[in-house]
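REVIEWER CHECKLIST
Item 1: Sequence provided? yes
Item 2: Single chain? yes
Item 3: Sequence as submitted:
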Amino acid sequence: MINFEDEIKKFQRSLEIEETEDEIYNSDAPDLTELISRLVEDNDKRTAADRKRRS
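Item 4: Structure as written out by the authors:
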């Protein structure tokens, strides 16, 4: 039978996971909230430009 306590003691995280976490946390990629904000701002700018052309 598996002794989970012993298995947990032997557990070592994969180096690939560590590297991936570092890349994710240190990246300057925008999160979903920032992307939505950019889309809304862009839409507002386009709407204002359309209104100016129609006037």
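Item 5: Key structural point noted by reviewer: The chain has three helices and no strands.
Item 6: Recommendation: ____
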